[in-house]
Design brief:
The protein is of the alpha/beta class. It contains 22 helices and 20 strands. About 50% of the residues are buried. Bound molecules: adenosine-5'-diphosphate and ligand TPW. Ligand TPW binds next to helix 16 and helix 18.
């Protein structure tokens, strides 16, 4: 137990009691949840203190959004819900963006917020930080619960855990009113009210006929393709997924956060031939990947369709834990509903040595396109322009990541994101952590802190200068906890690029332009970390090597050409202005 208090109940008699604070801590610990990311304040300050005193890791941030992003990515990395703790109304709302982002990305997390007095909130009498948080959270979370009585804390935490990790994972809100924490109950009753959740994410075995349907479709395919999504990375079925890919011999494409599930240098990896394989494939198997905007909704020109709305003619197998995902964008001919581990194991059972390898012509065509594109990219990467551009800087990052395959790579920005994704190979599962389904800016430092805390190892964060600004103050958190995080800002002095001018000639800068020659590295120095101003690939390389050698918090301000970068990076076509043309 986190602690019990002995108080005299009646004259001459002492009874062991526990309280809401201890029960929350005990419930979390009982379920192996040993880390809290958060920001303290009324009414949860003592909860944070007591959690630390009870041996939990409590990581205090400068802003709840970063703390909640940290919790969400800890959930992705571990498969256990990440815990974020905030104060009421504004703290809760600051955490809510990340809770919604977690639900969108299928990351399991629990946002625990203290809240004001129910009676005052419900009568709208103006309590300190008054807000009906539960009602608001419901539309952003996979599930939301409130606990009013100390004896229900065990049930509340158990329900939150199950909701976060079972089925399609997501963000859960747990509302704990301030009055709950000092409530005392008999220690024995309290202990017995706690629940150690049995099998929180039960396996979901696919139906045998669904597996056979998928195998039949795959077997007939002439130009098959596998797409691995972050659901496949999350499932931690790495060996079986690799066996599935290798035994079938089918080329595969990893989505952004599935990079490294198999090493990007794997001979069957078709990333460098993406724009060739999508329209050319005849059967596509999606493994933990949705046909959302990131895959052009499974139709249109990307898939060989006649126009933006047309189906490209592919047949789809889709492995997903959500029974409602199939047919969300195009027809799914063979949905396989279940957890990826069970589904892939079931498919493997039907794939033996007699399984027909894909047609040699298809594999040769993919290989040819791949080597052409890789050679073209190598040429671009070998250039050494002055000033640096994205490519010459990222050629360095690529080498460093290759030499440090266990490092986590956090990545956000527009061009900084797209170029890093395509240039920097990943070698191990769940090491690439990025902006995910929403393409959200602001995950950078929260993800970095969590990645360092969860993995205990090196983190490299590749950040656009705009992207970094959303969570930049957390470099203090990185320094305070002395985390081995090396932040590299690809600094082109603006959103997308830094050379825009105010068309009126007025004093205000253009909306996308930032302060020129900004010295971001001084921010890290301000808190005792190492700051480096790098203007050449050689300077960037030695700064990163030193950061990894020393494990010290480091920020490298990599100054790149202000004219480098396209608007919105690779997704310029989604801009309304571009769409009108
Ligand atoms: P990406 O962005 O990488 O394409 P998405 O986030 O779109 O990936 O898709 C992830 C999918 O994986 C979701 O549809 C989710 O339901 C599914 N998923 C998550 N975890 C599992 C699991 N353990 N087993 C099966 N499917 C899962
Ligand atoms: C929460 C819109 C997408 S990308 C981006 C913004 C503001 C920054 C791009 O500039 P950066 O990268 O980071 O300097 P680079 O390499 O292209 O120069 N608010 C949120 N999320 C998003 N996605 C935006 C705004 C956006």
């Amino acid at each position: 137990m986190g602690g019990t208090v002995t108080t005299p109940q009646f004259a001459g008699e002492a009874q062991a009691v526990t309280d809401g604070f201890n029960l929350v801590i005990d419930a979390l610990k009982l379920n192996g949840l040993d880390t809290i990311f958060g920001v303290p304040g009324i009414p949860i300050t003592d909860l944070a203190r007591k959690a630390q005193a009870a041996g939990m890791r409590v990581i205090s941030f400068r802003h709840e959004q970063s703390a909640a992003y940290a919790a969400s990515i800890a959930g992705f990395m571990t498969g256990k819900p990440g815990i974020c703790l905030t104060v009421s109304a504004p703290g809760f709302l600051n955490g809510l963006t990340a809770l919604a982002n977690a639900t969108t990305n299928c990351f399991p997390m629990i946002l625990i917020s203290g809240s004001s007095e129910r009676e005052i909130v419900d009568l709208q009498q103006g309590d300190y930080e008054e807000m009906d948080q539960l009602a608001i959270a419901k539309s952003f979370a996979k599930a939301a619960f409130r606990v009013l009585h100390a004896e229900d804390i065990g049930v509340g935490v158990a329900r939150a855990i199950r909701a976060a990790v079972s089925g399609r994972p997501g963000g859960v809100y747990l509302d704990l009113p301030g009055k709950l924490f000092p409530q005392t109950i008999d220690a024995e009753i309290g202990k017995n009210s706690l629940i150690k959740v049995v099998d929180p994410a039960p396996r979901q075995i696919p139906a045998p006929d669904a597996v056979q349907r998928a195998l039949a479709l795959l077997r007939e395919a002439k130009r098959p393709l596998i797409i691995l999504g972050k659901g496949a990375a999350y499932a931690q079925a790495d060996a079986d997924i690799r066996a599935l890919v290798e035994r079938t011999g089918i080329p595969y494409l990893p989505m952004s956060m599935a990079k490294g599930l198999l090493p990007d240098t794997h001979p069957q990896c078709a990333s460098a031939a993406r724009s060739f394989v999508l329209p050319e494939a005849d059967v596509v198997m999606l493994v933990g990947a949705r046909l959302n905007w990131l895959l052009s909704h499974g139709k249109g020109k990307t898939w060989g369709g006649k126009d933006a709305r047309a189906w490209g003619g592919q047949k789809f197998v889709q492995i997903d834990i959500s029974s409602q995902e199939a047919d969300s964008n195009v027809r799914i001919d063979a949905p396989v509903v279940g957890d990826i581990g069970s589904c892939v194991a079931a498919l493997l059972a039907g794939i033996d040595a007699t399984w027909p390898k894909p047609q040699a012509g298809w594999l040769a065509a993919v290989a040819e396109r791949k080597s052409k594109n890789i050679a073209k990219m190598a040429e671009t990467l070998a250039k050494n322009p002055v000033p640096m551009n994205f490519h010459s800087a990222l050629a360095v990052v690529r080498d460093i990541v290759k030499a440090n395959p266990d490092a986590c790579l956090v990545n956000e920005g527009a061009n900084a994101l797209d170029f890093t994704r395509s240039i920097v190979d990943m070698f191990k599962p769940r090491k690439r952590l990025d902006v995910g389904t929403w393409g959200v800016m602001g995950i950078g430092m929260g993800f970095s802190v969590a990645a360092a805390v969860v993995s205990g190892g090196q983190v490299i964060a590749i950040e656009g200068d705009s992207a970094f600004g959303f969570s930049g103050m957390e470099v203090e958190t990185i320094c305070r906890y002395d985390l081995p995080v090396c932040v590299v800002i690809l600094n082109n002095s603006g959103v997308y690029r830094g050379d825009e001018k105010n068309p009126t000639g007025g004093r205000d800068p253009a909306p996308l332009a930032f302060v020129k020659d900004a010295r971001y590295e001084k921010l890290m120095e301000a808190f005792g970390g190492v700051g480096v101003h790098a203007t050449t690939p050689a300077e960037l390389r030695s700064a990163m090597e030193e950061a990894i050698r020393s494990r010290r918090p480091t920020l490298v301000n990599a100054v790149i050409d202000a004219t480098a970068g396209t608007e919105s990076g690779r997704i310029t076509s989604l801009n309304p202005a571009a769409k009108r043309q």
